[in-house]
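Researcher: Next entry: ABC transporter domain-containing protein (Thlaspi arvense).
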Amino acid sequence: MATHGQASFWAQANALLRKNLTYQRKNIWTNVRLVLVPLFLCLILLAIQLLFDSLMNSVSDKCGTNNDFQSTDCPIPNPPLLPPMLAIPQPKSRAVKANFFPYNDLPLESCRKTGTCPVTILFTGSNHSFGKALSGNIFGGSFAVNTSDLLPSLAHNVLAATQETGDNNYADPAISKDFPVYNIQPQCSPNSTWPLSFGQTKTAVKCVQGLSLWRNTSAAINDELFKGSWRGNPERLTNEIAAAYDLLSTDGKNFNVTIWYNSTNTDGSSGQRLVRVPRLISLISNAYLKFLKGPGTSILFQFVKEVPRHGSKSNTDIASLLGPLFFTWVVLLLFPVILTSLVYEKQERLRIIMKMHGLGDGPYWMISYAYFLTISFLYVVSLVIFGSAIGLKYFRINDYSIQFVFYFIFINLQIAFAFLVSLVFSKVKTVTVLAYILVFGSGLLGSSLFEELLESPSFPDIWILALELYPGFALYRGLYEFSQSAFRGNGMKWENVSEAGMNKLFIIMSVEWLVILIVAYQIDQVSSSGRSIFFCFKKSSSLSSPSTQRQSSDDGVLIDMEKPDVAQEREKVQQLRKEGSTGHAIVCDNLRKVYPGTDGNPKKLAVRGLYLDVPSGECFGMLGPNGAGKTSFINMMTGLLKPTSGTALVQGFDICKDMNKVYTSMGVCPQHDLLWETLTGREHLLFYGRLKNIKGSALTQAVEESLKSVSLFDGGVADKPAGKYSGGMKRRLSVAISLIGNPQVVYMDEPSTGLDPASRNNLWTVIQRAKQNTAIILTTHSMEEAEFLCDRLGIFVDGGLQCIGNPKELKGRYGGSYVFTMTTSSEHEEKVERMVQHISPNAKKVYHLAGTQKFEIPKQEVMIADLFSMVEKAKSKFTVFAWGLADTTLEDVFFKVATQAFSSS
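Model: Predicted structure:
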């Protein structure tokens, strides 16, 4: 098969796009269900809305007239006119003489028993005589009203109440048959009470004396007000002053007054209640007018009135009320989907296997980002369409173009944020839990904390902008502004975007989107190239040549480098590096990998200073026991692990610096099959073939030849999903993937694992044919496979090469003996041993059990004819049940080398 060169950016993007489209077509219903999630959630919201409306309709029958002012569900188009009143203390709480008051002008405490304690108002200012004159004009005369013109006549009286106000002026709790309304007069005659009617409500007006007292300083008033409250009284008794005026510099030309009043509820809390301050202002203003113009001058304060309102049914758009929390959760549900998809490819190593076959970072990011953007766009568009279709004002009233800009910027920010977070995690379960915590936590924190901060006038705007740097809060802010606009009924338009703060939000999200995307891409490129993210802060280590005798490892263990074949390989590599030759496909120069110690365990040397040269057209086999470091070596060569020190050149490219270039000429058959379960064998090969820049009919032909070579073409197997393949079929497909496109370097980690003998022999033929123009490094536990496929072998033990050479050389070097076996009765064992020692004094007995003995006999000491003669002689003297003579096998060599290595370590 001809080499097709490196695939261009757009060829790689086309390959990944076609693969993704195929994959998504087979998972179409998953995507459909995802896009339909907003419809389902909007239907839930509609059901809640309909239920709420039905409850409101049942309440609307109770409104009847506008007299039910206490019902917040009823409309009040014409609020009542209510007389303004003062807030005065309860009779038992009014100020009297006490030991903590130094003043003698207060009434005696005995008035509390008769309920005749006056209402005290304090005065101070810079002009005592002027202040006394004004305080004398505060209270009116005797109570008199005209029932036909009630409110104007009541305005001449100073009305007061001991009941607290409500949170509006639609109804005054003081106007009730259960409580009296007080009229403040300079003097009250006994039992001064008058009946009064306000509409349908009948009440009583009761006289209370008003007492105006002068204090010399405002500090004295402040002290008296404080001590008169229960907070300043150690006995927790109240001695309350109704109000106080500081006339300051008020005179005949200047009116400058400060008013003290009590804004605290009787339970000590500060709630959302109206304060009866307007009447206090009216009293001092009229007193000043009377002083200037005479007693007949006044400005009547006739009534207070609330603004008309619709019934609350018109303001019960559930989407507007629940929008910030509900739709924050709805939109953020995309975050776990995107994040788990990215981490799944990382966990299953699908991303790295694609990179190993030539897929660059640029095409991967572009196609993956475009896919997530498409899904996210369809998701939010369906949300807006479904919400508008079912009549939610949250979507209908707010300008659609503003919604489009907001959602478009945010979904891009969300995708970029998911890419950044995915670089930190490698387990789907962990990241799924984290993602859903962020989803629900963002909504709950937004509604319980962030919304409070938005509504707080004292919280600095700069901190609001800082909090919006977190994407969840940025989303909540935008949805909150949409809900407020919809709730008010005017909707958000472009002319009030700045007023709502959305313009700053757009800028923050746009800048953050670009910054996060660039940072995530750069971090991904650095980490995927085999370098640490903090490589700029690390000192570069020089690749100095080791000594010709011994090399010290990181843990202090000395590695013997004196074996001739290993030393020769090292010298060859050093010569190649010195000459700068790049003609060899793979050159490993002092490649080492050390795993750091954990939980008190020492660090582990997986690969100890490996020197290796593999030219093109050679299949190099790595043999070794489990844990010898073979897979660590393969993982370093394929970019899964970074070398601790040393390096390797693949087609002249350094695996520590140019791993992305190495990937373009590489094929990999990993130890574990990395396949998409829903893609067929043909679709896998089409994808990887396109990554190898094979196009058109050449691609079709290459795929069919690959399928046929690994026996996956006939019987419709090629078009079955890989998830339905047996273990052996998956293994054959992995081998076919590694060889498609005729890569210059191929790594095969135990390629024939799980195959039956026929399939294994067929696979060996495929590999044998492929190595003609390719350098192959193969790890295996099968000596038969190693001897059949490999031009050279290296036995790897405890992280280092113990020997290297072709199979015949190794058997000749480490297996220069015959293995002689003979089985007799137990009483003749010594005779057999003496006969063997007679013909070969250096023979070594390696096995002995129940009459069966096995000897290693050096080839240089005997001839095969001597052994046959010895057997015939033995047969003539005693019974020989069985005997055999065998040459040394590769397995014997492996066992011998491994045993020697372990015994010397």
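Model: Note for the record: Confidence is low (pLDDT under 50) at residues 65-70, 534-561.
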